[in-house]
Amino acid sequence: MTESASSSYAAAGVDTAAGDLAVELMKSAVAATHGPNVLGGVGGFAGLWDASALTRYRKPLLATSTDGVGTKVAIAQALDIHDTIGHDLVAMVVDDIVVVGATPLFMTDYIACGKVHPERIADIVRGIAEACAATGTALVGGETAEHPGLLGPDDYDVAGAAVGVVEADAVLGPERVTDGDVVIAMASSGLHSNGFSLVRHILAQRSISFHDELPEFGGVVGKTLLEPTRLYTAPILQTLEAHPGAVHALSHVTGGGIAANLARVLPQGAWVEVNRATWSPPAVFRVLTDLAGDSLESTEGTWNLGLGMLAVVDADHASAVTATLTAAGLPSWQVGAVSTATRDLAGFEQGAKGVDGGAVRLVGSYAD
């Protein structure tokens, strides 16, 4: 690029030098996720991953997922805390891959911003890299795009995509689910990364700022809301290995809430009643619904209410699977059972996201 062209680009609001500095600040964190299967370093046009590692599979299937963090970034921007967003991004992407029983291999990220603030970008990517390391995922590439005029100087959004692998005959899903299977819940760490448009609406209605300190939130409101999404991948993979064949299906409770996401991984004709009395939704959900003057039940189609992941498990192995998950750092408990008995399914959530799956409804009252 000629000097005149470079100067013109800077005049247009794009700072390539700031982008280069951001890369330098994040290089060590990204490199820490690279194992022997990653070829080359940071800064290439494409990330390379040695696929010869897949030769140990009889029939490897590649699994892929892409996602973002949504309007939770508005809170990170308001508080100028950005590393937790990286954890959220990895959780939203990689924990979708493990749902089919796949082991994550590598991930790429994309950050769009109005102006590159090198330290901020490095914080975001550092968070992504830390979560990638925790899930055994190599961060092999990414892109930071500066869009002056389209985004404000302090605005940004993040997205990511990952690839994993699973043996063809080990894929988890509805076809493995049978009558009498037990549904096990794994605790969430809070709101995770869904339903923040509702969160922001409730706070705005009450004129509550993210910077406000409220005892019922346990401190600064925004910091409580930024609690990172729990990472389920490593403990689940450990559990699948410890109890081969015991887990039949998994459901990541994201947009749509508990019933809709569980229904997606049940076969047609199967139904589950999830017993609310088996858990007490964390305080953040209770505080927000109280502020809204509403009930916890009214938010069941939006928030996870304390259930971040669900497993459908063979009944004979349910206790052992629950113990393994809990020992691995995922508090887990039984919330229901699968039935294929004929019954009236009025009031049940039946399928979601274009999937004609089973039927689920929540019953009873939440524990105090």
Overview of the structural elements:
The chain has 368 residues and is an alpha+beta fold. The chain folds into two domains: 14-167, 2-Layer Sandwich (60s Ribosomal Protein L30, Chain: A); 174-363, PurM-like C-terminal domain (Phosphoribosyl-aminoimidazole Synthetase, Chain A, domain 2). Helix content is 32%, strand content 26%. The chain has eleven helices and 15 strands. The chain has helices at 3-11, 16-31, 72-79, 83-97, 118-135, 196-205, 221-225, 233-242, 257-263, 283-292, 318-327; strands spanning 38-39, 48-49, 60-68, 103-113, 138-146, 156-167, 182-187, 213-214, 219-220, 247-252, 271-275, 307-313, 332-339, 349-352, 355-363. The radius of gyration is 22 Å and the shape is globular.
Q: How are the strands of the largest sheet arranged?
A: 10-12-7-13-11-15-14
Which architecture of the largest domain would the CATH scheme give at its second level? Alpha-Beta Complex
CATH domain class name of the largest domain: Alpha Beta
| Percent of residues in helices | 25-40%
Helix-and-strand structural type: alpha+beta
- CATH fold annotation of the largest domain: Phosphoribosyl-aminoimidazole Synthetase, Chain A, domain 2
Name the overall outline: globular
Mean pLDDT: 90
Largest sheet: 7 strands, mixed
Domain PurM-like N-terminal: 58-166
Family: Belongs to the AIR synthase family.
Catalytic activity: 2-formamido-N(1)-(5-O-phospho-beta-D-ribosyl)acetamidine + ATP = 5-amino-1-(5-phospho-beta-D-ribosyl)imidazole + ADP + phosphate + H(+)
GO molecular function: ATP binding; phosphoribosylamine-glycine ligase activity; phosphoribosylformylglycinamidine cyclo-ligase activity
